[in-house]
Here is the input.
Amino acid sequence: MTTWTLRPALPGEADAPVDGDMAAIDGETAWTLVLVRDDGVQQGLVRVRWRIGERCARYWYHVGTSVRVAPELAMHQRDRVLTLCNDHTGAVELAGIALRDDGLDADTHAALARLLVSGALALVREHADPGEALRVIAALPGVRKGGRSTFWDGLGGRFYPGDPDASARRHGPLWQTHLAALLPQLPVVLSLLHPDARDALGAVPESCNTLRAALLQAGFRCGRYASIDDGGAVFETELDPQYVPASGLVSRRSALGAREIVWSS
Amino acid sequence: MPDLRDPCRYVLRRCTSGDLPALLAFAAASPPGLTTLPNDRDALARRLERSLQSFQTEDVSGEEIYLFALEDVQAGRVVGTSGIAARAGFSDRFYSYRNEFVVQRSEALDATIRVHTLHLCHHLTGVTLLTSFYVHPDYRDTVAPQLLSRARLLFIQQHADRFSDRIAAESPGLADEHGQCPFWDAVGRRFFGMDYAEMERLAGGRSKAFIADLMPPSPIYVPLLPDDAQWAIGQLHPESELPFSILLDEGFDADTYVDVFDGGPTVQERLAMLKTVSRSRLLRATPGAAQARGPHLVTNTGLAGFRAIVAATSAASEPLALDAADLARLQVAHGATLWASPLDLGPAP
Here is the structure.
């Protein structure tokens, strides 16, 4: 039997992040949880950033709808519209969620994905004020073709000539804040983008399907927001104070005093 | 071989019902989207009738249109036409895209960008529009295009109560021989799913405002468009270079507005700022030959009887000396007051 434990990262562990992401913006509260197999191998990671965007503005694309009517022609036009927004300011973010496959069977992989999500939510609940309605978001990476984000090529890349991946590594979670200053400040009609960029909006890469399923199962929904660089789907939910952990999970206090969650297969 | 360069051959006058066959021929000879003349006998006849009423009426509403015919009096044929719409959009809105540039900077990324945007606007609603320009190809290198285009300005000036003090003109944008228009393909087609020519047919000669109602109100960020569409913004259809060059020479601003459908330039300027108008003088005519003569645009002060010619004279001082033949072409007698403006006839464009 193999056992996995989701626990706070030990000093040093967070310095070697799975996704190359930085832990937090200066002054923001954040935790890093690592998913560790009983032989010590780090299998996954999730960062919990608390009340994001209040110290440094964070940006997303809101995906809305615009309808216009020409009665003389008996025609109407319905478009999806991207609007730069700060809608999730004050929310909790599950960031940089990553789960290594390592040849796991599908059921185990799915269970570990659920463990990452539910464990992070358990941490959020633990730190939320009683009865507090907290929004929680989680962004998954956007789709790529040949290593390039077609959404970036169709939108952000038209406004910032630099390398987005290098800039993201350099600036961490602030990358999108810096990028937003260069992007269209007024709504962008999606139909004006290249078809490949349109198709990439909110799409989830195949490698993240398990995480997507775990998020949806945990009550997240998607389709209304996207990341401003690669168009990745942004999932959102309101914290449910009555949340019941998935079956098979055991929550306990670790020797370090922090909550840890264990799942065995 | 007739000398078509002889300015004495030409007279500009209002269109009459007898000009319908010539107008039909002009509309048929124009590639799609290159003229505002409808290539349809009934529609053209209705437009001609509206023009005739406009020249007659004293009760102006702004809906008037004025069509002019350029006659080669020696050949006895109409060789071109031009028009005026008193108020763009009239009771509806007249849509344009306004060119704007916004500079954005990210200190952290050490990047500054200058972004070109197109904003849907109604700024030109109510201004007077120059329309319907067409000159027979045989007459392109003569004074005919000058007379067709510029004489309208003097007509507007002397009947100012019928027009706006701001003048605009749309010029056809870039399109290939099949009517494929890169700007339309990148913008309009995304919202209508049809060819530009189909859209023109759908409009059926009506105001396109109701079509523009379907365009997104938010600005178009030009960097998002395909390269050929970006390049087409403000570019002319090659066939419209001649009339456009005359408008530029008049002093029209061509950088601010473009057409919402084909991206062609829409020029605009205050009437008083235009070269022909600012240099024009109202002078009493006398028979004879002026000293130090040069080509001038000369018009009478009529409404329905408006006529314009190019004559060799001098508007530097009164009276305005004109040959008897010039007075006859203008259908005025000795002592009539006429508008005259020097005409720069440089090398053919």
In short: The CA atoms of residues 114 and 217 of chain A lie 8 Å apart. The longest strand of chain A covers residues 60-70. The mean pLDDT of chain A is 86.
